[in-house]
User: Which sequence fits this backbone?
């Protein structure tokens, strides 16, 4: 069945990889953190999960929308996206420092980040992706021969 937009394909790919590989690892790690520091850090573990998911989505969707195995290895390893990746890593560091600063400012300050992250994830998944990943952009990037 033809897709109206290729964004659904790319969203499914990142969500499947996240669900298959990252969530089980993060559940084990989050359980270990809660065992070590107590249940009081559970909201922070959840906030960190949301932040990681948001940064992962941004990193994935700001790359060129290449279908898996459609680009040559040298093209995939090119440095065209390096500036974007470094910028998003700086954003990830800023998000971590914001969480830390809000936690130091007052005890429940970091809980304010939950609706912010949830809103940003919603925006990225429902609005930004469909404007960023179009069939024209996919055709420009991929080599079908």
Assistant:
């Amino acid at each position: 069945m033809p897709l109206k937009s290729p964004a659904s394909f790319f969203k499914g790919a990142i969500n499947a990889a996240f669900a298959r590989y990252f969530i089980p690892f993060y559940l084990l790690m989050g359980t270990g953190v809660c065992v070590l520091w107590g249940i009081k850090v559970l909201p922070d573990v959840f906030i960190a999960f949301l932040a990681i998911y948001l940064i992962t989505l941004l990193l994935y969707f700001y790359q060129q929308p290449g279908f898996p195995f459609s680009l040559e290895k040298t093209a995939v390893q090119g440095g065209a996206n390096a500036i974007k990746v470094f910028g998003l890593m700086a954003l990830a560091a800023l998000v971590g420092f914001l969480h830390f600063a809000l936690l130091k400012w007052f005890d429940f300050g970091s809980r304010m980040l939950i609706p912010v992250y949830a809103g940003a994830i919603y925006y990225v998944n429902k609005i930004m992706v469909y404007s960023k990943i179009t069939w024209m952009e996919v055709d420009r990037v991929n080599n079908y021969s």
In short: Residues 76 and 137 are 16 Å apart (CA to CA). The chain has a mean pLDDT of 80. Residues 7-141 form one domain.
